[in-house]
Amino acid sequence: MSILLTRAVESLVLPPAINLVLGVMGLILLRKYKRAAITLLALSLVTLYIFSIPFTSLSLMRSLQTYPALTAEDLRHPEAQAIVVLGAGRNYDAPEYGGDTASKLALERLRYGAYLHRHTGLPILVTGGALHGRAFSEARIMKDVLVNDFRVPVRWTEERSDTTAENAGFSRPILAQAHIQRIYLVTHAWHMPRAVQAFQQAGINIIPAPTGFTTPWPIERGGFAWLPSAHALQTSSYALHELGGRLWYGLRGSINSGDKKTNGPGL
Question: What's the pTM?
Answer without folding.
Answer: 0.87
